[in-house]
Structures are given as structure tokens and as C-alpha cells.
Design a protein that fits this description.
The chain is of the alpha/beta class and 336 residues long. Helix content is 39%, strand content 18%. The protein folds into two domains: 203 residues, Alpha-Beta Complex (inorganic pyrophosphatase (n-terminal core)), CATH 3.90.1640.10; 124 residues, Diaminopimelate Epimerase, Chain A, domain 1 (Roll), CATH 3.10.310. The strands form two sheets. Strands 3-2-1-4-5-6 form a six-stranded parallel β-sheet, sandwiched between helices. The radius of gyration is 20 Å and the shape is globular.
């Protein structure tokens, strides 16, 4: 592993750079990617953000979003850019499996790989690494990369600040999670000083729903929410027919699991969604309950202690029943 500081010398000369992030990028993934993009283009590099899949429309306002290539929509172009790159920045993921078939092209590329991430147990595919599970968001690490590692705080433009604020805001649960430290607030304050429009960003991300999405949320809370008081657990299970009924688009299920967690006394919340290719599961928890352990052991996933995800090739009903059957195993922890 090469010291991350060595990139300062590498980036002193123009490079061909690809920035990528995980499947179905969220606010931190896109905020980090476009924050880094808006920093690097100031230094004269040829930079391209390539996402493995599409992402929510409420993130399309981010500065220079129009320059993003979606891998599944421009396969040949994306593959050429990956093969020709000098550097590939891998943001907000730590295993090439998280970028689907695009991972094979990244692995085969002669480019040096740079991992900037805050998830547990990273794989060893990278040459440079800025990694900390204590960071509340990858966007926080991008800020530290620019300011501390590259020593270029003057390049924190309004565009960079808006992107990084978005990443930190969304991955910290609007600054309410326990890893939102005093340092995080200081970083955010500096981003606002640099031009981040905090009020506007909140509106664009959280107050930008379609009518279909609102009706879908209401339907789920009325018809798909189950509460297991004996286990301090709540679950929302959504079959594919519901997604079709409400014409659900990428990002429309974002935050749904948090409604289940907001119920008084709930320690564990699950969102189980039947997708065309597999069943996806998102878990949220409070305190010391290890949501990531359940995802890792039983649902081919992982994540943070209080926010994790997984997937299964089993049927929707089988996954729902599997989750329910796990609750007695964790009863002691859930009732603490």
C-alpha cells in the first residue's frame, strides 16, 4: 500500500482519472464523487465520473452531474475510459463486487486504484487508501483528502462544498447519528463558509418527492408495516407488485426504513423489497445492536453497526420469513 500523501506529487501533473462509486449511488456516493470531480478539474486533469447504475433524480442537481456516465447505458465508452485511466478513485465502497460487472474492468485496468471509504473490512484491490470507519461519510474523507492530504483548502469551491455537504448531510441522517462529531460540525461550518447552500440542499434532497412517491409511502405505512413488540422490531416488506402499482423509480424507497425505526421503543427496523433480480434488505438499528452482523451472516451483505444492507436470491416470502425467524435468536440484544 502506497502512502496517500504520495498522490500530491502524482496529481501535480495532468492525469486521466476515473471516479466511480457503488451500485445505486446515494447522496454520499454522488456527493463524494462529484465533490472530488469538481476539485480535480481545477487542477487540469481529465476526469470522468462513471456510476455502475442510475441514481435518484433528487441528486441530479449536483454541480456537473451532467458529466456523469452511467456504465449500463454507455458500456463501450465507459470500458475504454476505465482501460485508459492513470488513476481510478473508488469512493464509498471497499469491494469491487459493489460495482457489479464494472468491477472486472476496474480490476483489469493498469490504473492505480485509490480507495476512499468508511465501511468495515475493505478488500485489498487498491494501491492508495484513505479509510476510516470513524468517518460519518465518505464525503468527510474527501474533505480531509483535499484539505489535509493534498493541502489545498483554497480549492474548496462553492461547487465542491455543495457536493460534500450533501454527502455528509445524507449519510449522517441530517447530522443526527452518533458519529456526527464536533469535528464533523466544524467541517460542515467550513463548507457553508465556502458557499454550501445548506437550506437549499435540504430542500432539494428531502422536499422533492413526486406524488407517486408520497402515495407509495402512505400505502407502505398503512399496509406493509409490521411491528413485533416482543422483539422491539419493525418491518416494512414491499412486493414487486407495489413498486409497479406506484410506478416507483430509483430513489423512491430512500429513507423508508427510517419510518419503521422512528416508532417508540423500536431497536431494529427492516425494509425488505422484492426487486426483479433479487430481494434487497436494508436494516437500521439503535444503540449497540449489530445490524451489520445480520446482513453479513444471513443476507450476503454488511455495512455499519446501525445501518446495513444485504440481498438474497431466495423468494420474497422466504426472505421475509427468514428475517422473522432470526428475531428470537437476537431477542436478548433487542430487549436490552
Amino acid at each position: 500500500m502506497l502512502p496517500i500523501k504520495q498522490l500530491k506529487e502524482v496529481l501535480a501533473q495532468p492525469q486521466k482519472i476515473v471516479i466511480t462509486t457503488h451500485h445505486k449511488p446515494d447522496g454520499d456516493a454522488m456527493g463524494s464523487s462529484l465533490g472530488l470531480y469538481n476539485y480535480l478539474i481545477q487542477k487540469g486533469h481529465h476526469v470522468q465520473v462513471i456510476t455502475p447504475t442510475d441514481y435518484p433524480i433528487f441528486l441530479h442537481w449536483l454541480p456537473n452531474n451532467g458529466e456523469v456516465i452511467i456504465y449500463t447505458e454507455q458500456l463501450e465508452n465507459a470500458q475504454k475510459l476505465i482501460a485508459a485511466a492513470d488513476l481510478i478513485f473508488c469512493l464509498d465502497f471497499n469491494s469491487l463486487s459493489r460495482i457489479n460487472e464494472m468491477g472486472e474492468w476496474v480490476a483489469q485496468s493498469n490504473a492505480k486504484k485509490v480507495m476512499i471509504d468508511h465501511h468495515l473490512e475493505p478488500d485489498d484491490f487498491d494501491d492508495y487508501r484513505l479509510w476510516s470507519v470513524k468517518a460519518c461519510a465518505t464525503a468527510q474523507l474527501i474533505y480531509e483528502f483535499i484539505v489535509n492530504e493534498m493541502e489545498e483548502p483554497e480549492l474548496l469551491t462553492k461547487e465542491v462544498a455543495n457536493c460534500l455537504y450533501t454527502g455528509i448531510m445524507t449519510d449522517s441522517g441530517s447530522f443526527k447519528f452518533s458519529n456526527t462529531t464536533a469535528e464533523v460540525h466544524q467541517i460542515v461550518a467550513n463548507l457553508i463558509q465556502k458557499g454550501a447552500e445548506n437550506h437549499r440542499i435540504h430542500q432539494l434532497v428531502y422536499d422533492n418527492s413526486s406524488e407517486n412517491r408520497l402515495r407509495f409511502l402512505g400505502y407502505c405505512l398503512s399496509n406493509r408495516l409490521e411491528v413485533f413488540k416482543e422483539f422491539n422490531t419493525a418491518m416494512i416488506s414491499v412486493p414487486q407488485s407495489d413498486l409497479e402499482k406506484f410506478n416507483i423509480e430509483t430513489g423512491d424507497t430512500e429513507g423508508l426504513v427510517n419510518y419503521a425505526l422512528s416508532i417508540n421503543g423500536i431497536r431494529l427496523a427492516a425494509l425488505i423489497i422484492e426487486r426483479p433480480d433479487r430481494v434487497k434488505l436494508s436494516l437500521r438499528s439503535t444503540g449497540d445492536f449489530p445490524a451489520n452482523e445480520i446482513c453479513k451472516k444471513y443476507f450476503n451483505g454488511g455495512g455499519h453497526r446501525n445501518a446495513a444492507g444485504g440481498a438474497s436470491d431466495e423468494s420474497f416470502d422466504e426472505v421475509v420469513n427468514q428475517f422473522k425467524n432470526l428475531l428470537p435468536i437476537y431477542k436478548t440484544l433487542l430487549l436490552q
